[in-house]
Design a protein that fits this description.
Blueprint: E1 9-11, H1 22-33, E2 42-46, E3 52-58, E4 63-69, H2 88-95
Parallel strand pairs: 1-2
Antiparallel strand pairs: 2-3, 3-4
Length: 115
């Protein structure tokens, strides 16, 4: 699985039935996330109890579905993330249980010379 670092992730605020597979989840992308399913972005769906997550994405040749079930604990609430797209780094932190946004990330710096 190769995912470009500039990909955005979009999380569904409402809980989703985890019995849904690729087709069922792809039909939810436009009405719930206002995105195109085949855009190459990641679409995150969370179970009602927040112990399961499915991530749907298009990888140039077809849809792929990633699934994670926690044995203990819950994923952080998706409500703050649902208001905006977020980075792959933020998604990885969220999947590890870190509440996002915890604080503002460092700003990108354009280097013109090394001192």
């Amino acid at each position: 699985m190769l995912i470009a670092s500039d990909v955005r992730a979009y999380i569904c605020r409402d809980p989703v039935d985890m019995r849904k597979a690729i087709d069922g989840l792809s039909y939810l992308v436009e009405p719930l996330l206002a995105q195109k399913p085949a855009s190459g972005n990641l679409f995150v769906f969370v179970a009602r109890d927040r112990s399961k997550v499915k991530i749907l994405y298009w990888d140039r040749t077809g849809f792929a579905l990633w699934y994670k079930r926690l044995e203990r604990g819950r994923f952080p609430s998706p409500s703050l993330l649902a208001q905006r797209g977020f980075t792959l780094a933020e998604l990885n932190a969220w999947l590890e249980g870190i509440e996002i946004p915890a604080r503002e990330p460092h700003r990108t710096v354009a280097v013109t010379r090394v001192t």
